[in-house]
Design goal:
24% of the residues lie in helices and 28% in strands. The protein is of the alpha+beta class and 152 residues long. The longest helix has 15 residues. The protein starts with 6 loop residues before the first strand and ends with a strand. The structure holds coenzyme A (COA).
Length: 152
């Protein structure tokens, strides 16, 4: 039987912001994803180029994204946060959601996406690599490996 996974990225709104705050990573992932979702929601109220998206599989909320809708001084559009809830990991949602996010950022005119991850976060590193993200350099910057993806 063919199961088609429909992943949608929806804005965070009055309807779903609280549900988003209930998302969390696995306990052992707190070192690679330390800030709770409520922190990112709060920061986005002051850092106005932070855009939030809730990741849905059908009607089910499975994860959360923060991306920048304006470039830094070098023309890079950062993805400051990306997570899939602990119970929903390893089912392909992360990869599908990242593909959707890249599509969305491309539509918004983004030419170069940047994302950082801790060196020990092998799942994230492998996932980004499989989507074409390359390391900016072998150097660790503020404890993170920085990767980029060029969009044409
Ligand atoms: C990183 C993260 C977003 C990936 O989301 P996910 O839904 O679990 O990932 P997917 O199921 O789409 O799998 C993506 C790849 O990772 C691999 N993977 C997933 N879970 C894995 C595990 N426990 N062990 C080894 N590989 C794993 C998959 O096999 C897949 O590789 P493939 O494309 O070669 O098949 C998720 O693990 C997460 O939220 N981690 C904690 C927060 C975090 O690290 N965020 C990123 C910070 S930069």
């Amino acid at each position: 039987m063919l199961i088609i996974m429909v992943i949608e990225l929806k804005p965070v709104s009055i309807e779903n912001w609280y549900d988003c705050t209930q998302l969390n990573v696995k306990q052992e992932q707190n070192s690679v994803f330390p800030a709770p979702i409520v922190y990112w929601i709060a920061e986005s109220k002051f850092v106005h180029d932070f855009e939030l998206r809730a990741i849905y599989s059908g009607a089910m909320l499975v994860g959360f994204i923060v991306f920048c809708n304006t470039p830094d001084e070098d023309g890079n559009y950062w993805i400051p946060a990306f997570m899939i809830h602990e119970n929903h990991q390893g089912k392909g949602y992360g990869k599908k959601a990242m593909e959707k996010l890249i599509e969305l950022m491309h539509q918004k005119g983004c030419k170069r996406v940047l994302i950082g991850h801790r060196p020990g976060n092998l799942i994230a590193g492998k996932l980004y690599e499989s989507l074409g993200f390359q390391k900016v350099s072998e150097e660790i910057c503020d404890g993170e490996i920085i990767r980029f993806l060029e969009l044409d």
